[in-house]
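Re: the request from the purification team.
They wanted to know what the chain is likely to look like in 3D before they choose a buffer screen. I agreed to run a prediction and write the result into the notebook, where they can find it.
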Amino acid sequence: MSKVSLLDFWVSPFGMRARIALAEKGVEFERQEEDLFGGKSDLLLSSNPVYKKVPVLLHDAKPVCESLIILNYIDDAWPEKPLLPQCPYERAQARFWADFTDKIFETGSNVWRSKGQAQEEAKKEFIDSIKLLEGALGEKKYFGGETFGFADIATIAIASWFYAYETCGGFKLADECPKFAAWMKRCGERESVSTVLPEPSKVYEFVCMMKKMHGLE
């Protein structure tokens, strides 16, 4: 049996992507929590010498870096219960929207990093981005239709931070994007998601700590 391990950090949405995907595939793995502030492990630094960040998937000691590349790798290495659709066009669309969610994470981070007019602009940009995602979701249960898959995993992991954005920015996403909020609730009911995503209040506490570290209070 092959050995699978994941170098991770508890609040990283990018690490959550890998954990959810592995859970969906039923792959057993060991998880190593990295200390990103006190000192990264030698294993992390040697496994990801370019970016020196989590997550890193180690499959039989061979490292795979960057969360969306890891998702693709997981789908290829364990092809049962595919995360990507069979249609080439639909596969491309799933990858496109998954990539887009990386930009949403950056946009959302600008909400808690800013104040005043800058924060209002960041909130608008964030909500507008979610409305684009909501348009891609349409009336479907999941981004891929009836099947929870690649784009859903990439997005719901990022959404684990949305409560923190809402609390810092003083807004409710459900008021602006009710269909997307319903999708979040639906995804959160899956065991692979509910067992991975941290409590929203814990993410918010982490964001507050980050604000203090960067002198943003």
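For the purification team: The first strand starts at residue 4 and ends at 8.
Please add any questions underneath this entry.
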